[in-house]
């Protein structure tokens, strides 16, 4: 095949004019060009709102707004003037709407009024707020036990909303907090807590200006964190090495034209980003880093044998780390054969990575879903940390560990208490402040919540944003579980499929989005706060007129439900909802790091939550940065698939025109796909063989051995530059193939990047 890759304009860079054109289209397509454009100018500015797009940090000296194509889509999608009013629901039954695509449902625009499901009519009907709160409260109070309710959070919720939400659920009596992060960066939080004593990254945006080498692992920033690409590109221009590990050749990581750079735009120029682009097999990153460690140790041994100084940071290792000897033994015990087979890389490639590492004074490693959504994600992230420890790349300028978060406030939500396994100190502080006995028993994460709903032991589902039925694995099963509930409540901006599997009593409660002005009863504008990937906490205030006069803020809705459920003796919910400063005062008194919250958050860039690991204070059991000594997985999915002729490993990733389950459009420009989403990317040789056997379009069948039949129908094969034996396609359409039965060890994260499948004729 002459052109092994899908894109017709493969040589063109990411970003650039294509991005600008796409933005114009999205602003126009949202039918809100003016408010959308005005809103865009205020995104991530000191006096504007936090972009609901991603969690990448904001620059200190960003005088002009940081342009980001996908930020424009996120903002214009919310700032649309299309509406989904009660008359829409009068025209369409829920059964009918279930046949619509995600794109079509959200494309109807913003929800405008609280709606209650009427089973007789099979329609949602408008209902006054107070009635909604009263019935939700009464139903929750009527459950046999508070642990029968699940309180889901999607990571767009503000600190203020999340804090009230966890306070309410704990006063009610449960720690059931399934959270989108359970499907996302859970493994990062766990691995980093074990390794460095805190479940967050250690780098700031400024560190990217100083690094000599950045390893970008399992991440597609061109689509999902476009502003990060600017930082990577500037690093590359300074001469820093950018080493990409990604099975798929992602265009944004190869070349990038900065839409913010006028000269570059006029000249049609673009800059290379990656100095090294390595394409491991799915799930092969632990082996790749283990191989690097082997090469590093070998080089170091040779130096020492030759009487030269060690290449490792011996002072850091001796003073600040624990477990080096056991790690060295584990590395020595790992053979090259397993490393090469699992990683799919050559020894030369791995040694080249080690050379980059050894040649750099300051190294950053970043990662996202390509690393976290496997069975062995926790050991993989520990291995990345191990390698960084060897030359002391934690806790000094220009170096460190950087999990790149997903939702714009997913990190903040966890910081302010969304945690199904709350630390005792948090519960103690809440008990002391509010005078109640907090539940101590650990609650449910996403998988446990699904199991409880399927088994009938959970009977109520409250969703603070998100699209639980589509974001989770085994979509059909989860939809059934939601529909089996006594109560489902969704706090949302737009209609989605989770709303269309109503429980016996079911509500959709429409809220203000982040771009909209939130005024209290005295007319005073309220701000909320969020925390980015670099642990910067800053304010966010909307500028657009609310989509409907009936909308309430998330904080107001949670306060309404809370007052109707647990009463207002211990907490004056109405007063808190009316003045967010009061919520921040409570956060300041109960969550470490937030004293003086109201003052500090009003400074232009907000404030940094102190991260002790970044200062080389490691709050692990031993007080030291801790090496792990795991062996490689016995067999990765690739190795399992190889044992049979026709099994492939499928990863489910995002197109350029989507935000998780929100589908903005049907194009995936950087990968050369237009107007469709039912595509399946494959290596050209695999594709040719499949096509000969089955034709151009195929059905995909799950082949996990758990007794559940799973099939996704009618996908067009698209050739792509990726390893043989791997396939890739879009989430959420393919979630029907992601099994509930496989998940990360320790993290419980669904293995969305290593699904075993076979292909079949249509
Ligand atoms: N525009 C936009 N922005 C977003 C989102 C969005 O949907 N749209 N989602 C937000 C959220 S919640 C999140 S979590 C982030 C997600 O950001 P990403 O993690 O970038 O998201 P994915 O599209 O899942 O991309 C995974 C990348 O990892 C690669 N990969 C897959 N498996 C492996 C593997 O085994 N090893 C390696 N080395 N690479 C692998 C894939 O080829 C792909 O490039 O983005 C956030 N930002
Ligand atoms: N197969 C597969 N599955 C995955 C993943 C994958 O890579 N592959 N990724 C996983 C990841 S990383 C994540 S984070 C999850 C995401 O899971 P979720 O966070 O549950 O899903 P989203 O698609 O982000 O939620 C979209 C909905 O949020 C609502 N919404 C939007 N803005 C607001 C707002 O301001 N307030 C409120 N209250 N609601 C709002 C809208 O109604 C919209 O329909 O999915 C996970 N699922
Ligand atoms: Mo995420």
TrEMBL record:
Quote one Gene Ontology molecular function term: 4 iron, 4 sulfur cluster binding
Pinpoint the Molybdopterin oxidoreductase domain residues.
110-491
Q: Which UniProt keywords apply?
A: 4Fe-4S, Iron, Iron-sulfur, Metal-binding, Molybdenum, Oxidoreductase
Specify the enzyme's EC class, one word. oxidoreductase
Thylakoid as UniProt keyword? no
Q: What is its EC number?
A: 1.-.-.-
Q: Which GO terms describe its cellular component?
A: membrane
Q: Which top-rank group of organisms is this from?
A: Bacteria
Keyword Transferase set for record? no
**InterPro entries linked:** Asp_de-COase-like_dom_sf, MopB_CT_YdeP, Mopterin_OxRdtase, Mopterin_OxRdtse_a_bac, Prok_molybdopt-oxidoreductase, YdeP_MopB
Q: Which CDD domains match?
A: MopB_CT_ydeP (cd02787), MopB_ydeP (cd02767)
Required co-factor(s) are: Mo-bis(molybdopterin guanine dinucleotide); [4Fe-4S] cluster
One protein family per Pfam: Molybdopterin
Please state which protein family the record places this protein in: Belongs to the prokaryotic molybdopterin-containing oxidoreductase family.
Protein's UniProt name: Protein YdeP
């Amino acid at each position: 095949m002459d052109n092994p890759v899908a894109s017709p304009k493969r040589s063109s860079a990411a970003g650039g004019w294509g991005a600008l054109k796409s933005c114009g289209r999205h602003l126009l397509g949202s039918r809100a060009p003016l408010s959308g454009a005005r809103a865009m100018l205020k995104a991530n500015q000191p006096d504007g709102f936090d972009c609901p797009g991603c969690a990448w940090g904001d620059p200190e000296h960003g005088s002009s707004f940081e342009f980001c194509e996908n930020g424009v889509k996120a903002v214009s999608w919310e700032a649309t003037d299309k509406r989904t009013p009660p008359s829409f629901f009068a025209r369409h039954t829920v059964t009918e709407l279930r046949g619509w695509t995600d794109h079509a449902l959200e494309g109807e625009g913003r929800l405008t009024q609280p709606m209650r499901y009427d089973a007789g009519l099979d329609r949602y009907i408008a209902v006054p707020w107070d009635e909604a709160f009263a019935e939700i409260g009464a139903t929750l109070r009527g459950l046999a036990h508070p642990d029968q309710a699940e309180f889901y959070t999607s990571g767009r919720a503000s600190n203020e909303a999340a804090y009230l939400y966890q306070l309410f659920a704990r006063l009610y009596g449960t720690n059931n907090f399934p959270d989108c992060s359970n499907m996302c960066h859970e493994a990062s939080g766990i691995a980093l807590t074990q390794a460095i004593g805190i479940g967050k990254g250690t780098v700031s945006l400024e560190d990217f200006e100083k690094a000599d080498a950045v390893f970008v692992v399992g991440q597609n920033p061109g689509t999902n964190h476009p502003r990060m690409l600017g930082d990577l590109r500037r690093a590359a221009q300074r001469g820093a090495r950018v080493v990409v590990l990604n099975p798929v050749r992602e265009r944004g990581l190869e070349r990038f034209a900065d839409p913010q750079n006028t000269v570059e735009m006029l000249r049609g120029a673009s800059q290379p980003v990656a100095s090294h682009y390595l394409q491991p097999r799915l799930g092969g990153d632990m082996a790749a880093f283990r191989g690097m460690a082997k090469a590093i140790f070998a080089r170091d041994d040779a130096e020492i044998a030759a009487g030269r100084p060690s290449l490792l940071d011996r002072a850091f290792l001796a003073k600040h780390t624990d477990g080096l000897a056991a790690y060295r033994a584990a590395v020595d015990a790992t053979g090259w054969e397993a490393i090469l087979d699992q990683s799919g890389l050559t020894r030369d490639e791995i040694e080249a990575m080690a050379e980059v590492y050894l040649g750099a004074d300051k190294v950053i490693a970043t990662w996202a879903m390509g690393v976290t959504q496997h069975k062995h994600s926790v050991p993989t992230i520990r291995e990345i940390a191990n390698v960084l420890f060897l030359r002391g790349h934690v806790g000094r300028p220009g170096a460190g560990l950087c999990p790149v978060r997903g939702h714009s406030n997913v990190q903040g939500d966890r910081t302010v208490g969304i945690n199904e396994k709350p630390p005792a100190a948090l519960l103690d502080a809440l008990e002391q402040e509010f005078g109640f006995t907090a539940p101590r028993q650990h609650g449910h994460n996403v998988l446990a919540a699904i199991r409880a709903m399927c088994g009938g032991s959970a009977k109520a589902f409250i969703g603070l944003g998100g699209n639980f039925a589509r974001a989770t694995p085994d979509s059909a099963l989860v939809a059934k579980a939601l529909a089996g509930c006594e109560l489902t409540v969704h706090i949302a901006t737009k209609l989605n499929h989770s709303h269309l599997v109503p429980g016996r009593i079911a509500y959709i409660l429409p809220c203000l989005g982040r771009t909209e002005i939130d005024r209290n009863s005295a007319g005073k504008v309220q701000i909320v706060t969020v925390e980015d990937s670099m642990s910067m906490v800053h304010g966010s205030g909307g500028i657009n007129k609310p989509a409907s006069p009936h909308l309430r803020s998330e904080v107001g809705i949670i306060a309404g439900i809370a007052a109707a459920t647990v009463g207002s003796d211990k907490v004056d919910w109405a007063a808190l909802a009316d003045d967010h400063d009061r919520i921040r005062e409570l956060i300041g008194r109960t969550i470490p790091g937030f004293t003086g919250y109201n003052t500090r958050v009003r400074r232009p860039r907000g404030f940094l939550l102190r991260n002790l690991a970044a200062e080389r204070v490691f709050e692990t059991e031993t007080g030291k940065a801790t090496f792990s000594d795991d062996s490689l997985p016995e067999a990765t999915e690739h190795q399992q698939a190889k044992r049979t002729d026709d099994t492939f490993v499928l990863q489910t990733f995002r197109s350029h025109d989507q935000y998780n389950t929100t589908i903005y459009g049907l194009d995936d420009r950087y990968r050369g796909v237009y107007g469709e989403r039912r595509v399946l990317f494959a290596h050209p040789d695999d594709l040719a063989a499949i096509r000969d056997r089955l034709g151009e379009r195929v059905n995909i069948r799950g082949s996990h051995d758990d007794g559940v039949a799973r099939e996704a129908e009618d996908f067009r094969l698209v050739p792509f530059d990726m390893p043989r034996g791997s396939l890739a396609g879009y989430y959420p359409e393919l979630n029907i193939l992601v099994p509930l039965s496989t998940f990360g060890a320790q993290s419980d994260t669904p293995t969305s990047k290593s699904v075993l499948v076979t292909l079949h004729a249509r």
